[in-house]
Design brief:
With about 190 residues, the chain is of the alpha/beta class. It has 9 helices and 5 strands. It has a 5-stranded parallel sheet, with helices on both faces. It binds adenosine-5'-diphosphate.
Amino acid sequence: MRLILLGPPGAGKGTQAKILVDAYGIPHLSTGDILRSAIAAETPMGLAAKEVMDRGDLVSDEIVNGIISERFDAEDAKAGFILDGFPRTTTQAEALDQMLVEKGMSLDGVVEITADPEVLVGRIVNRAKESGVARGDDNEQVLRKRLDVYREMTAPLVDYYQRQGLVRTVDGTQPVEEVTAAIRRAVHN
Ligand code: ADP
């Protein structure tokens, strides 16, 4: 099973990805998580990415395309994967299509998780308060920037994948278990 989870920050992509990983036994490939690990490990890539991420901007296509291409070659990705946070731009989607062709793989679906922007702001402001260890980009001002970047750069990917007939839309404002059930129904249709 090869899936992309698409949706604005706070829509629940990470939460759903973790549940689906257990259900399908395939890895969760989150460019955001990989970049945050690189920041924590203070690698050159992490140092370069930190400032951009803390502003709510996108890291370069070159960096994230490289991360994903490398990740696809790992043994655990042979059985499939759940992409979360990648692709985020049309250039990344085109690079992904090319990687899939080269590696002889194809996508099973693109799950679009929708939610009202104001619900998302509330969720993320709460996530920052409750976790105590807030992500550098989980404050309201940066979040609004991330939502703008999503609308401008990433939302067009819904059309991109619609043209490939891959999009299944799920309402992300339902309770977590219902979103999971809706995704499972959507990808088995
Ligand atoms: P969220 O799900 O809240 O949008 P992520 O953890 O997916 O957050 O990403 C956090 C930040 O990491 C993004 O705002 C961006 O700076 C960077 N990032 C993650 N994935 C990508 C990507 N595919 N392209 C460019 N930047 C990325």
